Amino acid sequence: MGGTTWPTSLEEIAMRRTLGPTLAVMLLFVAGVAPVAAAHRQAISITAITTFDEVPDTFTADGLPGCDEGIVEDGPANVVFTPGPGVFAGFKVFWCDGSDSGFVLRLNALFGPGGSTGTWSVIAAWGTVEGMHGAGKLVGDPIEGGVIDRYAGIVTS
Description:
Blueprint: H1 10-30, E1 41-51, E2 57-62, E3 69-80, E4 86-96, E5 102-112, E6 115-126, E7 133-143, E8 146-156
Antiparallel strand pairs: 1-2, 1-8, 2-3, 3-4, 4-5, 5-6, 6-7, 7-8
């Protein structure tokens, strides 16, 4: 009758026992999985003053080694004014003072006369913050001629 073929020697039994683990290790090797250095997770906070003019704004940051302060500029954005809260989806480019370092955040926020709330994520980073990625929340408090944006979250570098 058909069915399972049983091993006929001790050699064949040993080969079958090691075949599965060997194939798994080979698959990992071929897939390019290699040990990587442990990523460093850290809490960050950024305070940026956004004014509604053509002058670049400033920011301060905690938790970003080598990037304690700098200039922030508006990137491309889509702003929709509605009877309820307005919608902002766009980018902010942060340039760290004293270096060629910086990063870009993607923002999604709702805004109105009382301020704004939303989320952010890192989409690019270079220089001393190269390789950084992460996300968090943002809150904007209105000021005359602009808003003070406060970003808080976790990044991995």
